[in-house]
Amino acid sequence: MGAEPSRRRGPTHAVPNRREVARATSIVRYAPRSAFPRHTHGGGEEIVVLEGVFQDEHGDYPAGSYFRNPPGTSHVPASAEGCTIFVRLWQFREGDDQQIVRRPAKEASGPGAIELFDDGAERVRIETFAAGAAVTIANLRGLEGLVLDGDLRIADVTLTSQGWVRLPAGDNLHAVAGPSGATLWVKDAPLIHKDVLQIPG
């Protein structure tokens, strides 16, 4: 799931969770030489870089980078070459102030999991599955998944790169990796935290 390529110097959006507006889960595409003015993350911002290189005044973040910008932080986002990012806005909990930056692991790729974040209330990781692997992920409190590479068949639906799945607590994820395997970004957490930050107004 993604936006069509942009012909202007700015971001375009594709929003898989359309029922949520300010509290949003989106895929955003920056055209080459895109830039935003400085903005503050009032409710926090969580980003996965899917394609290209995302940038701000602190550095460059290639595809595979993950970061959490907690409420009150700010930056000046841009992309010289263009990029596509997965963004979650206004979904931080009260008191959650952990800022995390994870760039892609340099070690050889292969089946397994890479832990990105775990504070007890939520766990974020990247899981890689071999071709044809049967996949089961237990879901005790809510689950989101975004296909980063390859494809994953869930029941009669095949999710390809940037395909997104969101399951309520109790619905375990059962899937089969495609012929080239699959890499999945996984968030194990309530779909909406009970103590989620409230949107002003």
The fourth-level CATH homologous superfamily of the largest domain is Jelly Rolls
Helix content: under 10%
- The CATH architecture category of the largest domain equals Sandwich
How many strands, what sense, and barrel or not for the largest sheet?
7 strands, antiparallel
According to CATH, what is the class of the largest domain?
A: Mainly Beta
Order of helices and strands: EEEEEEEEEEEEEEEEEE
**Computed CA radius of gyration, to the nearest angstrom:** 16 Å
Ranges where pLDDT stays below 50 over 5 or more residues in a row are 1-11, 13-21
Structural class: mainly beta
Question: Span from first to last CA?
Answer: 31 Å
Specify the number of helices. Answer: 0
In the CATH scheme, what's the topology name of the largest domain?
Jelly Rolls
- Mean pLDDT across the residues is 88
Tell me the number of structural domains.
2
Basic shape: globular
Q: Say how many strands there are.
A: 18
- % residues in beta strands: over 45%
Give structural notes.
Strand 15 and strand 16 form a beta hairpin. The strands form four sheets. Strands 1, 2, 5, 6, 7, 10 and 11 form a seven-stranded antiparallel β-sheet that branches. Strands 12, 13, 14, 15, 16, 17 and 18 form a seven-stranded antiparallel β-sheet that branches. The protein has a two-stranded antiparallel sheet with strand order 3-9. With 201 residues, it is mostly beta strands. It is globular, with a radius of gyration of 16 Å. It is built from no helices and 18 strands. The protein folds into two domains: 11-102, Jelly Rolls (Sandwich); 112-188, Jelly Rolls (Sandwich), CATH 2.60.120.10.
